[in-house]
Amino acid sequence: MVNSSNCVSGMAPRIFAVLMVTMMGMCVMAVQAQAHKVNLFAYVEGDRVIVEGYFSAKSRAQDCLVEVFDEGGKKIHEGKTDEKGMYSFKLGDFPAFTGGLKIVLEAGMGHKTEYTLSVSDIPGSAKKDGHPTEQPGKNQPEALPGPPVGGSAQVADQAALIAAMEKALEKKLEPIVKMLGNQERLLLEEKYGGPRINDIVGGIGWIVGMVGMAAFFVGRNRSGKN
């Protein structure tokens, strides 16, 4: 009569080997999926839109197609990322559009992602809305009554001062906008980046350890009975 405990203990190495092969296959698949997941981030800096494509913190989406669509789904621009996974374009070069912009990045092999810039993300001075551009000082308060000759000069000086202040403020805010954009990108990476390689390997190591302990106790029981 065959001892059932001997059968179980004899099968333990085979079960362990099968589990090891299965887990190694899962590890390879998870690593490949993580490595090929493409991410996209975009932000406005001045009158330009900066696009960043990346697979991970150290792997950039190089030479990838970037397409820009308006709110109605019409493609209005396209380009390609550089060796750093970066691409930028000037809003002023676009035809008239309203609303936000949808930016799509294609990395090949079916890998595709998109990012949407809402209306609030696009400065009103940079986007085109199909209406005539307002002249500086048109909506400014009328100058106080004064000499006829000096009145127009005062309005012009006031408009020039406001324009200079806006330009200086925009220049000061650019680093802050970029910093906030980088912070948002890090938050997106943390939220959608998925498990890291270290997490995957650590999980597999934990499973292998549990299987090893089980095999050890099965072998110990077998030795004790013999």
From TrEMBL:
Membrane spanning stretches: 12-31, 200-219
Keywords associated with the record: Membrane, Transmembrane, Transmembrane helix
Region (Disordered): 121-152
Name recorded for this polypeptide: Nickel transport protein
Record organism: Desulfomonile tiedjei
